Amino acid sequence: MLTSNKRFILLFSASIVVVVLGIYFFKIDLYKTQDDKPPSTLFSLPMLSTSSLPTYYASHKYLFPEKYPPLRVGEIVPTGWLKGQIDREVNGLAGHLCDFFDVIRNSNWIGGQLPCSLNENIPYWLNGVVPLVAVNKDARLKEIVFKYIDHIVTHQQPNGWLDPSCCDPWGSFSILMAFTQYCEINPTDTRIIPSMLKFLHQLDKQLDTNPLTTWAKARYQELVYSLWWLIDNQPYEHEFLLQLAYKLRGQGTDWPKVFSSPTFPKEPCTRPCWDYSTHGVNVAQGIKDSALWYRVDHDPVHIKNAIYRTYMLDTYHGRVDGTFSGSEHLAGLHPSQGTETCLVVEAMFSYEVSFSVFGNISDADRVERIAYNSLPGSFTSDQWNHVYVQQHNQINAKPCNPHIFVTDINLNANLYGLAPHYHCCTVNFPQGWPKFVTHMVARTQDDGLVVVYYGPINVETTIKGKPVRVEVITDYPFSESLDFRVTTKIQFNLYLRIPYWASSPTLKGTDGGVRTNISPGTLYPVNCSVGLSSFSLYLTSKIKPIVNSFTKSVAISKGALIYSLNLNKSVVKKNNYYLESYDLEMTPTQPWNYALEIDMLDPTKCFVYSQGDITQIPFSTDAPVKISAKARKIPWEEKINAADAPPPSPVKSTEPLEDITLIPYGAADLRITEFPYIDVTTTPP
């Protein structure tokens, strides 16, 4: 490891670079709203030297620790509406694919007859349902998942290879991710780590004669994530694992080079510019690359690369929900271009990893925005049917010939069904909710905890061997008040993430004390004494228009939620596959061509926010929160079976003024999210 003097010099240099980057990249703003301020610093707590690391950090010399390592899988369980969301995943498509979907139930990974070209279906599915059974405890699904893991381990090839039919290693990358999570929920199974190491040695040999290509090359960092887990969690072969990571890096896609290249696509990526580095899912997975390598050397260039990567995606392909377009390749700013469901869950996980390493509050804000908008926007409210690509302005979910998407994807890609296009999204979307839950609370370097993402949860863990229980009681993001109950046998600091969008956060204790000197974009510490501590956090947000630079259209946000016009629709059910699994064709039964009236100097006066009691399925048309707005119809037509680009704003209209209601983005199957606007700004006297 570095000497203390060298570490001081490195960290001092890193601090200078961070300040410079903060100045240079001040324009990078996830929300792009009228009055959001840029982060004043990338980090909220100083990095400690290894001599003062708390007891939970693995003792090794090869990696710097994560700044905020997540709790072990299974230590956080959802409650309230979030438990309902997880229950519906278990009881919906994700939890029943093993009952009827042939690429799962008859996969050669578990002794069946069906391989696929990438052999990724079982690996993807297990990467999601292993944490799903940890946060849900469903006995039926847990038995099946454990049985699948057992078969894969007991049928590993003598030379260590895991994939039963494919020499391409990509499928095994996701299997190892599933294995790491399985080890955390079933640590008594001592076969898993030796199985992983055996595979990695065989892979190391294979790479000398068969280097990474295509998907494995672009997704090499998915395996590096598991290598770092092995270094952190078991004592063997650390030097080999690090050397293998460097070999993978040498053969993998150079993601910093991709984003800094003059050829990085700044327009929709059409032929012939397609390659594996422009594929949206690969890009989403590559986001975590900088965070992973920062753990090796703490080189500030990784911080710069991470910031610049997000800036480039936001600027040229960004979506107001924190994702970016990819249908399947990077597709520009047009709100009718699609975002693949695999991209959604992979971007969530990459930014979860980035926060764990860097501690950048903007990354955490972004994860929540994706989780509470584009994730539920990927499937129907019962979680039985999903889209391959979702659109921010989605006026149809039907076979489209021709279609608007820049890539030659299936004509059914935007309808809700079992597998509207490739199988990947069907088997990969299950990771979204459970991995979000497992990352909601993390550890800190002062032997404390930090609540990273908000929602109703219970946490049971230990600090220095002493039991700690944290209950977060809330309807967030459908409410901005959160109650905390902490029961502990050891005193510690519980840090609360204060989002950048919070306008006047307030903390209240049971003793009547009130704290208001809380800055957005920070982690606020609350000292929890032995026994029971109770307190409440109130996050107040404003209704804000988010401007898309494409045509100056606007989306409406409040807190972590984006709001859309829900389109009443007709639904035709086709192809019943199993229980409630259908292909659903949807078409609108109401007008959608509206422009919002907005006073750009004081947009809040043009909207009325209403909040009701939490509903059984909050991400549905029965959503508990709504925004009323004034709008007028304008000439805005359908083009190529999709909503044409919004007319450049501001627009004018002589049509009658109407009241329309906006609901959370993820609650609407057909929606308009990015509107032209009519400027009704009044000039001050």
How does this model look, in words?
The chain is of the alpha+beta class. Strands 14, 15, 16, 19, 20, 21, 24, 25 and 26 form a nine-stranded mixed sheet that branches. Strands 1-6-7-8-13-10-11 form a seven-stranded antiparallel sheet. A four-stranded mixed sheet has the order 4-5-9-12, with no helix packed on it. A hairpin with a 6-residue loop joins strand 14 and strand 15 (554-558). The protein is globular. It starts with a helix and ends in a 6-residue tail after the last strand. The model is unreliable at 1-58 (pLDDT under 50).
What keywords describe this structure?
685 residues; alpha+beta; nine-stranded mixed sheet; seven-stranded antiparallel sheet; 26 strands; 20% strand; globular; disordered N terminus
First-last Cα distance? 65 Å
Query: Count the strands?
Result: 26
* Uncertain regions spanning at least 5 consecutive residues: 1-58
Largest sheet descriptor: 9 strands, mixed
Residues in helix, %: 25-40%
- What's the overall average pLDDT, rounded? 91
Strand-residue fraction? Answer: 15-25%
| Helix/sheet category | alpha+beta
> Helix count, per DSSP?
19
What is the 3D form? globular
Rg calculated over all Cα atoms? 24 Å
List the helices and strands and how they pair.
Elements: H1 4-24, E1 76-78, H2 80-91, H3 93-100, H4 102-105, H5 121-136, H6 139-154, H7 170-185, H8 192-209, H9 214-218, H10 220-233, H11 238-251, H12 255-260, H13 280-286, H14 289-297, H15 301-317, E2 338-340, H16 341-358, H17 361-374, E3 389-391, H18 424-428, H19 432-438, E4 441-443, E5 449-451, E6 457-463, E7 466-474, E8 481-488, E9 492-498, E10 506-509, E11 514-515, E12 522-528, E13 531-538, E14 543-547, E15 554-558, E16 561-566, E17 569-578, E18 581-588, E19 594-598, E20 607-611, E21 625-633, E22 638-639, E23 642-643, E24 658-664, E25 671-672, E26 677-679
